[in-house]
């Protein structure tokens, strides 16, 4: 897969603004110590703090040129968790909005060492965790725009499955491939002892996969991130191939 996003990077900045409002709104609807079922071991307050920390890590990765070793990981005295989140985002946007998305920026995915990578990554980070907090708070899960969900599917397969797993030294036990289909888009994710790879493909090529998973863009997006169960998607073919994809993605995205 290409390291290029499927949509304009301006959409990611727009999405960041929208998703932060949804995230903080949901967080205010529940006590901060409310458990988050989608992120075992986390509370609502900890998710908000985590996202605020990720914004700081991203900005420092860009400005320092390498993975940061230290950053402000907690609110300062007198600062609320929401303020910590918002100041982290403001500082990050100060970097992202003053550089061309195609300009070089250090990062962890060699296929896309650009400012655009970080706009894309932070938009999806915020979107996924927003659904986590909405679920924990017991409020309706706001729909994810189709273009964002489709791009998110591409990102989790190309960057997290195709790159993150090899970085961690993890692979499939047997070579299996799964086609992922939604809204006219198709990908193949193949893993085995010798390779872990994903790519955008034709519908005809997908027929050669061991299994096929399909549903709406939002359902597939959340399924790949482990936020909804197998009931949310339709699948056909070898169940072991799907089980391996699911297990590997849980390791890649934890």
From TrEMBL:
One of its GO terms (cellular component) is plasma membrane. One of its GO terms (molecular function) is metal ion binding. Residues 19-134 form the Mycothiol-dependent maleylpyruvate isomerase metal-binding domain. InterPro entries: DinB/YfiT-like (IPR034660), Maleyloyr_isom (IPR017517), MDMPI_metal-binding (IPR024344). PANTHER family: CONSERVED PROTEIN (PTHR40758:SF1). This is Mycothiol-dependent maleylpyruvate isomerase metal-binding domain-containing protein. It comes from Amycolatopsis taiwanensis.
């Amino acid at each position: 897969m290409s390291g290029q996003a499927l949509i304009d990077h301006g959409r990611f900045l727009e999405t960041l603004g929208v998703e932060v409002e949804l995230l903080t709104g949901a967080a205010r609807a529940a006590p901060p110590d409310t458990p988050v079922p989608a992120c075992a071991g986390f509370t609502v307050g900890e998710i908000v703090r985590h996202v605020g920390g990720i914004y700081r890590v991203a900005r420092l990765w860009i400005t320092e040129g390498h993975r940061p070793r230290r950053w402000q990981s907690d609110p300062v005295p007198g600062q609320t968790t929401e303020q910590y989140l918002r100041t982290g985002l403001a500082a990050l946007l100060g970097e992202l909005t003053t550089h061309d998305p195609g300009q070089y920026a250090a990062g962890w995915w060699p296929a896309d060492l650009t400012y655009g990578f970080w706009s894309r990554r932070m938009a999806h980070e915020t979107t996924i965790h927003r659904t986590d907090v909405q679920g924990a708070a017991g409020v309706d899960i706001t729909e994810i725009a189709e273009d964002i969900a489709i791009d998110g599917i591409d990102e989790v397969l190309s960057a997290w499955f195709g790159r993150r797993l090899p970085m961690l030294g993890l692979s499939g036990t047997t070579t299996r491939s799964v086609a992922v289909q939604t809204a006219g888009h198709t990908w193949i994710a193949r893993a085995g002892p010798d390779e872990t790879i994903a790519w955008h493909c034709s519908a005809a090529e997908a027929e050669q996969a061991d299994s096929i998973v399909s549903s709406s863009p939002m359902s597939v997006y959340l399924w790949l991130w482990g936020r909804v169960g197998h009931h949310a998607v339709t699948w056909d073919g070898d169940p072991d191939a799907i089980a391996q994809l699911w297990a590997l993605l849980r390791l890649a995205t934890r």
